[in-house]
Specification:
Blueprint (H helix, E strand, L loop, with lengths): L2 H31 L4 H18 L7 E2 L5 H11 L1 H20 L11 H23 L8 H13 L3 H21 L8 H15 L27 H27 L9 H17 L6 E2 L1 H9 L6 H17 L8 H14 L3 H9 L3 H13 L2 H20 L2 E8 L2 E10 L4 H9 L6 E11 L1 H16 L3 E3 L3 H10 L11
Parallel strand pairs: 4-5, 5-6
Antiparallel strand pairs: 1-2, 3-4
Helix pairs in contact: 1-2, 1-8, 1-11, 1-12, 1-13, 2-10, 2-12, 3-4, 4-9, 4-10, 5-6, 5-13, 5-15, 5-16, 7-8, 7-13, 8-13, 9-10, 15-16, 17-18
Length: 495
């Protein structure tokens, strides 16, 4: 092996250990928040590292159980049971493989960023509301409304030991990320905080509730099963899971590309790899997986150079689960709740909200996040997409018609989008122009389509048949200029 190869191997080895330390507490916490067994999060982390790492198209992306799927998975576990949720994960993986094989990965990037950012923010709000109860020693409720209503009661029945552990964990995590992380980037703040919370929990006179892990984690699989759930419900759930997981993974791959100068992500191949990962994870009783920006950015920051770092992180996870899983029983649930609250709050990105507002999509963002928080994830996404399409159609239907008489001539200026949506209004306006005059039509338009071209031509023929004259730029020339982007969009009158 040459020196460059040995350097890459050393860098990947170091990065894989850092990613493993980041992923371990997150995988456990996400499993707890999803209402799934602890082993499900660990299995998903192992599969995300090894299976997706071996077959993926995004070299430095790291996959595993994701906070962005927590709310959806929790709902499936409550509605169908965990075994059926595993079957849904398998079916979603198969759909992802088919979509990636059909090379439609980039279609997911067409979803409005306002919808996707609001979806993640809504999930963050739901995670935070639920885990606040665990931080105070209670149990999360089934909805945002229920969590809000029950919060005063949970605070009133405060478990002081759980709260002390949770508050300490959160404080250490915030302080570490704020003051220490840049100096020792190879030590994850999440691991330091969880370890500190566990140590404090062991020292307190009253031990707070801890996670429960069976002695042999990998031997206690819960295999996929359909159960008594209706097939149409399971099919719809699989379709929704495939859509959300694919969007999150592909957007993570695009974001990861911005963090390094290496080979770019091959999105269709990555989507196939994500599908293979979900097939394997669901079949082995694991949670659904996606590309995860927290692990991917940690991988790049720690010096990862190839896919080997992601693969090795999965190997370290398997080794830990096989030989050291008993240590997990000492982790207080309140410590994991503090970690998840930190993750949930960070899903609400103020910078993204400002960007959305700058592009005039704050209404889409607000509608989506309210739908996700107070109805459910799919309704929130649907409401956001519907509003985004409505606003787009509104912009495409905005056209001003300015009419000015100058002696014997009539000057008409059209400004805006000249499309099929504006044809009825503009043809009605042109139809009432005084007859048998010279009309100079100026087009200052941003959009033009075939229906509008034919409508303007039809009006011109009718007006000139009635004895008038219309002077305008050739619509065919204007269409060519706009589609080829070789001419300005403001057209001046011409013969």
């Amino acid at each position: 092996m040459n020196s460059n190869g040995s350097t890459r191997l050393r860098d990947d080895l170091t990065a894989s250990l850092v990613v493993f330390l980041v992923a371990l507490p997150l995988s456990i916490g996400i499993a707890v928040a999803s209402g799934a067994p602890i082993r499900a999060g660990l299995v998903a982390a192992i599969v995300g590292g090894i299976v997706v790492g071996l077959s993926g198209g995004a070299p430095l992306q790291v996959s595993g159980p994701a906070a962005g799927l927590t709310v959806m998975v929790y709902g499936y576990v409550e509605q169908f049971g965990f075994a059926a949720t595993c079957a849904i994960t398998v079916a979603a993986g198969a759909l992802q493989v088919l979509a990636g094989s059909a090379r439609v990965a980039r279609a997911a990037l067409a979803i409005s960023p306002a919808v996707l950012q609001a979806m993640l923010a809504g999930i963050g709000v739901l995670i935070t509301l639920g885990q606040l109860h665990v931080l105070f020693g209670g149990a999360p409720q089934s909805s945002a409304w229920a969590n809000l209503r029950a919060l005063p009661q949970t605070v009133g029945a405060l478990d002081t030991s759980a709260f002390a552990v949770g508050a300490t964990t959160l404080a250490i995590l915030l302080a570490w990320n704020r003051f220490v992380a840049r100096r020792v980037p190879f030590v994850p703040g999440s691991l330091v905080a969880i370890a500190s919370g566990a140590a404090l929990g062991a020292l307190l006179p009253t031990r707070p509730p801890c996670v429960e892990v069976p002695p042999n984690v990998l031997a206690s699989f819960e295999w996929p099963a359909l159960g008594d759930a209706p097939l149409e419900g399971l099919a719809l759930a699989a379709l929704a899971l495939a859509f959300v997981a694919s969007c999150e993974s592909l957007l993570c791959a695009v974001a990861t590309d911005k963090l390094h100068a290496g080979p770019r992500a091959r999105l269709d191949r990555e989507l196939v790899a994500q599908g293979l990962g979900n097939l394997a994870s669901g079949a082995l009783g694991g949670l659904p997986i996606t590309g995860v920006i927290v692990r991917s950015s940690a991988n790049i920051a720690a010096g990862g150079k190839t896919q080997l770092s992601a693969i090795l992180h999965g190997v370290w996870m398997a080794v830990f689960v096989l030989f050291f899983s008993g240590l997990l029983n000492s982790i207080p649930r309140a410590a994991l709740a503090a970690l998840l609250i930190h993750v949930g709050v960070n899903l609400v990105k103020v910078g993204e909200i400002k960007k959305v507002a700058r592009f005039g999509e704050i209404a889409v963002y607000a509608a989506t996040i309210l739908g996700v928080v107070f109805i459910n994830l799919l309704w929130g996404i649907g409401i956001g997409v519907a509003l985004a399409v409505t606003l787009l159609l509104r912009r495409l239907s905005r056209l001003e018609c300015e009419v000015e008489e100058r002696g014997a001539e009539i000057h008409v200026t059209l400004r805006g989008a000249l499309t099929f949506l504006t044809v009825p209004a503009i043809t009605s306006r042109l139809a009432v122009l005084p007859p048998r005059r010279t009309v100079r039509l100026q087009l200052e338009i941003s959009e033009l389509d075939h229906a509008a071209i034919e409508a303007i031509r039809g009006w011109r023929v009718g007006y000139e048949t009635g004895g008038g004259k219309v002077e305008k730029q050739s619509l065919d020339e204007l269409w060519s200029a706009m589609t080829n982007a070789r001419a300005p969009r403001t057209a001046t009158p011409g013969a």
